[in-house]
Design goal:
181 residues; 6-stranded antiparallel β-sheet; 10 strands; globular
């Protein structure tokens, strides 16, 4: 059984538990979501916004979940490599990760090649990314958003040209630009 199938089965299990009146974990995702653009597929789980955890992640702090990396989304380039801030992202799957602020340095965004079967093994929490080859890592620039996303949202804008991938959670939003080669 593929990991994607397991994620869908687990999501269905959570939905079934909710219908049975069982209490779901506070941050449990409700859905596996996807966004598509020509040659690009992004999948993510809609984790609940936790302001304290995100503040620790972004600026440093004591919240346990905010002191570790978060797997945000799986990015699949299907047709051709792309570039992010001058670095090539090859065809195939990669993982978009936000790493916590540490040692006076702010949070970072990273695209990493990983074994995708190891990503969403516990759907009760935002997955901790497994080790892998880093394709690119840059400072995370999260700006104040006009709206509040109660759950993680990832969007893709652009067609055959540059692609804008935006992560929106709570009142924070960050966008990375992927350039077609």
């Amino acid at each position: 059984m593929s990991r994607t199938t397991l994620v869908l089965v687990a999501a269905a299990t959570f939905a079934g538990a909710a219908l049975d009146g069982q209490e779901l974990p506070k941050n449990a995702p409700h859905f596996v979501k996807s966004q598509k653009a020509p040659g690009v597929d992004v999948r993510f789980l809609d984790f609940k916004w936790d302001p304290e955890a995100f503040a620790s992640l972004e600026k440093g702090g004591d919240h346990a979940v905010g002191r570790r990396s978060w797997a945000l989304a799986r990015l699949l380039l299907q047709e051709a490599p792309m570039k992010w801030e001058g670095r090539t992202i090859p065809v195939g799957p990669s993982l978009l990760i936000v790493n916590p602020a540490q040692g006076g340095q702010g949070a970072t965004l990273e695209l990493r090649r990983v074994d995708m079967r190891d990503i969403f093994t516990n759907l009760n929490v935002i997955a901790e990314p497994p080790p892998g080859e880093t394709y690119q890592k840059v400072p995370a620039v999260f700006e104040k958003a006009d709206t509040v996303a109660d759950r993680l949202e990832v969007s893709l804008e652009g067609g055959t040209g540059d692609l804008h991938l935006t992560v929106h959670i709570g009142d924070r939003r960050a966008t990375i630009v992927l350039k077609r080669s």
